[in-house]
């Protein structure tokens, strides 16, 4: 009996070690495709021409590789982390506030960039970006990136685009003479605290905020106070991109932080909206295609990563989502994005964007910062009116 | 001797495996019962109650403030966190909403159920059932999104009230603190209307069932003895229908307590218990607090069911 127990323990241990070794090591060489691939993605990231047949970067890939793609869309970074923790998916298009959490939780595996020929074409600004590179190891390949812009109603602002985020943070009269109370929105995710911090960074330099994702107690408190003012102005917080689109159409919302995706969608429906890159700079997202540790279809996943970096796909996604490509070549000669597309979406403003990161207690810019799970509970409190 | 007659009295064993199994079960009815009941009982015991217990167990752990990892040591501090102002708000908000929704559902459902039980006959009865059940056939999400459009600031309801020159009424209502807001679809009033709409069938049907069982001659006897309609209602009809009302209220109350989709789409973004559970376990990775939040509706419903049983609600199900 003892013998069996011992060997069982040994076996369990060796299995534990084996999986650990597997988790740390990237794929050495590519094999044949497994015929299937499942991706967790933001809405609008993986299009197969269902909404508009010009926007299709899946069908061709499926034909070429035989990998049948299935997509699970997620509305927030936190949903993505939850889905990846659940498992059963191969790839995820994780933003910077999710990617490091996934790496720390050993949910994603290192990528062997030698197996991805297009890796060389990736924008130099992104190649070793800290949101997916840990100690020199790459945990994924960049997909697309973009700013969180300020979307506004052009009828209400009458040719005077809002130059500052103050329209969503402080009570004021808009150019149409009415108050902004009840007519602005904010993002329903704790990461929105960073937008408040970004605003304070510009308007209250005495707080000494160096990064909106690294806040000490005082800076954090100031950001929450600002958000409490915003709570009085915002009727609803947006969670789902389509609900925000609906709110701009039917709910009388005239200004909100938003993604270029919603701006483009509303413009395509001839709604009077436009977006602005306010003086405070913006927060933004830079998404990475990451591979699950227990992926069942790693070969198909590598093929997709290669496919996702082609100039054509990068250009098409950027055009559809209002994002910026991670491959410079995509900015030229793409029919859907057009040659001005990159500039419109903020390709040259890379340095002004503070990309989403997960707030951690051990931060770089100061001795101790408020960690993310407190952002979560306090943001719930702020929305609840506390 | 007796053995031989015994053998003759018993039918010859059926050939084949199926036949033998059938004979075996016939001879051992208890085994048959056990085999039939085992799968559902195992399901209930392991998959349902087991996972529930595992969840409840989580609520006695805590999350480490520094690393954000779960600390597997027994503690009641997670329950202590439920008493934070923000969390207590969520609980109070959800329970009051559930209570008000239940009350109004009962008020609206009673006359409808009364009409259906007492007066509707033949074709009208069929139409009644169809009318009550029909909303249940379409997707829950579709109904909620439809309501979002109806209640929106630039939606149908506002348009309709504008045509009737009644916008001042809507504005007056929306200017009331707490229940008001920028528009119906971003106020508690909107959330309330949709909750009442969605759970209404669950209130009407049990009340109707209990009213059907009230003998008509009792009502007649009551008025023969000189009581006013109000007295008849208070002393005869209402007490007899009460089990049905309580049964219906179990549904509306518990469904409102647990729902997390309606308040997300319609309302002011302030969290309800279901959303808090979702946010804590999905967003924050704070499973202990999510589990502690889950215990709240379980305890409330436990008390509620205990009271409902005392009022005889389960006789009307």
From TrEMBL, chain A:
Source species, domain of life: Bacteria
SUPFAM superfamilies tied to this protein: Periplasmic binding protein-like II
InterPro entries in the cross-refs: SBP, Sperm_putr-bd
One cellular component term from this protein's GO annotations in UniProt: periplasmic space
Record's signal peptide: 1-23
GO BP annotation list: polyamine transport
Protein name: Putative spermidine/putrescine transport system substrate-binding protein
Record's subcellular location: Periplasm
Keywords noted in UniProt: Periplasm, Signal, Transport
Source lineage: Bacteria, Pseudomonadati, Pseudomonadota, Alphaproteobacteria, Hyphomicrobiales
Single GO MF descriptor: polyamine binding
Main location: periplasm
From TrEMBL, chain B:
SUPFAM superfamilies associated with the record: MetI-like (SSF161098)
KW Cell membrane (keyword) present: yes
Any Gene Ontology biological process: transmembrane transport
UniProt entry keywords in alphabetical sequence: Cell membrane, Membrane, Transmembrane, Transmembrane helix, Transport
Compartments it resides in: Cell membrane
Broad class of the protein's primary localization: membrane
Domain ABC transmembrane type-1: 91-308
InterPro entries: MetI-like, MetI-like_sf
GO CC terms of this entry: plasma membrane
TM regions (residue ranges): 31-57, 90-115, 127-150, 156-174, 186-207, 236-262, 283-307
Name of this chain's protein: Putative spermidine/putrescine transport system permease protein
């Amino acid at each position: 009996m003892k013998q069996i127990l011992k060997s069982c323990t040994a076996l369990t241990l060796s299995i534990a070690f084996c999986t650990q070794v597997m988790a740390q090591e990237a794929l050495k060489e590519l094999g044949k495709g497994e015929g299937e691939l499942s991706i967790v993605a933001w809405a609008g990231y993986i299009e197969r021409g269902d909404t508009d047949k010009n926007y299709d970067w899946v069908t061709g890939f499926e034909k070429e590789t035989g990998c049948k793609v299935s997509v699970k869309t997620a509305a927030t970074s936190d949903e993505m982390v939850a889905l990846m923790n659940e498992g059963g998916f191969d790839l995820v298009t994780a933003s910077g506030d999710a990617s490091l959490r996934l790496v720390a939780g050993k949910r994603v595996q290192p990528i062997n960039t030698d197996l991805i020929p297009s890796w060389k074409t990736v924008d130099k600004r992104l190649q070793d970006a800290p949101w997916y590179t840990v100690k020199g190891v790459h945990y994924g390949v960049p997909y697309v990136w973009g700013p969180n812009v300020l979307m506004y109603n052009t009828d209400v602002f009458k040719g005077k685009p809002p130059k500052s985020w103050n329209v969503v943070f402080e009570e004021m009269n808009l150019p149409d003479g009415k108050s902004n109370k009840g007519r602005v929105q904010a993002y329903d995710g704790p990461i929105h605290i960073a937008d408040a911090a970004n605003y304070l960074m510009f308007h209250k330099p005495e707080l000494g905020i160096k990064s909106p994702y690294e806040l000490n107690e005082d800076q954090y408190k100031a950001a929450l106070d600002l958000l409490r003012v915003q709570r009085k102005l915002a009727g609803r917080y947006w969670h789902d991109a389509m609900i925000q689109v609906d709110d701009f159409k039917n709910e009388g919302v005239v200004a909100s932080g938003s993604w270029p995706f919603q701006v483009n969608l509303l413009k395509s429906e001839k709604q009077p909206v436009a977006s602005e890159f306010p003086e405070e700079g913006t927060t933004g997202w830079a998404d990475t295609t990451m591979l699950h540790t227990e992926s069942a279809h790693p070969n198909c996943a590598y093929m997709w990563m290669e496919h996702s970096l082609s100039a054509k796909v990068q250009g098409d996604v950027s055009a559809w989502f209002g994002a910026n490509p991670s491959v410079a070549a995509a900015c030229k000669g793409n029919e859907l994005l057009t040659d001005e597309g990159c500039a419109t979406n903020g390709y040259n403003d890379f340095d002004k964007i503070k990309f989403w990161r997960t707030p951690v207690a051990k931060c770089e810019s100061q001795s101790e910062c408020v960690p993310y799970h407190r952002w979560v509970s306090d943001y719930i409190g702020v929305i609840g009116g506390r | 001797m007796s053995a031989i007659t015994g053998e003759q009295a018993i039918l010859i064993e059926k050939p084949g495996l199926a036949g033998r199994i059938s004979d075996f079960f016939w001879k051992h009815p208890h085994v048959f019962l056990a085999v039939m009941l085992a799968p559902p009982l195992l399901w209930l015991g392991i998959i349902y109650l087991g996972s529930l217990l595992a969840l409840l167990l989580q609520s006695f752990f805590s999350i480490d403030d520094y690393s954000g990892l779960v600390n597997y040591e027994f503690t009641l501090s997670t329950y202590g966190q439920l008493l934070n102002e923000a969390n207590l708000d969520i609980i109070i908000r959800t329970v009051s909403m559930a209570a008000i929704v239940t009350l109004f559902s009962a008020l609206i459902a009673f006359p409808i159920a009364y009409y259906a039980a007492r007066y509707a006959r033949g074709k009208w009865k069929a139409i009644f059932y169809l009318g009550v059940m029909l909303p249940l056939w379409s997707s829950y999400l579709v109904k909620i999104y439809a309501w979002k459009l109806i209640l929106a600031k630039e939606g149908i309801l506002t348009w309709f009230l504008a045509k009737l020159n009644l916008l001042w009424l809507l504005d007056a209502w929306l200017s009331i603190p707490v229940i008001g807001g920028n528009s119906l679809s971003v106020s508690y009033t909107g959330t309330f209307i949709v909750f009442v709409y969605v759970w209404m069938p669950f209130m009407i049907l049990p009340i109707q069932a209990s009213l059907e069982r009230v003998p008509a001659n009792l009502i007649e006897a009551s008025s023969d003895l000189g009581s006013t309609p109000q007295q008849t209602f208070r002393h005869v009809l209402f007490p007899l229908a009460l089990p049905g009302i309580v049964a219906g209220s179990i549904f509306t109350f518990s469904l409102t307590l647990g729902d997390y989709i309606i308040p997300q789409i319609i309302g002011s973004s302030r969290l309800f218990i279901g959303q808090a559970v979702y946010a804590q376990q999905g967003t924050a990775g704070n499973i202990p607090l999510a589990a502690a939040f889950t215990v709240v509706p379980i305890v409330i419903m436990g008390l509620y069911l205990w009271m409902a049983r005392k009022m005889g609600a389960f006789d009307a199900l």
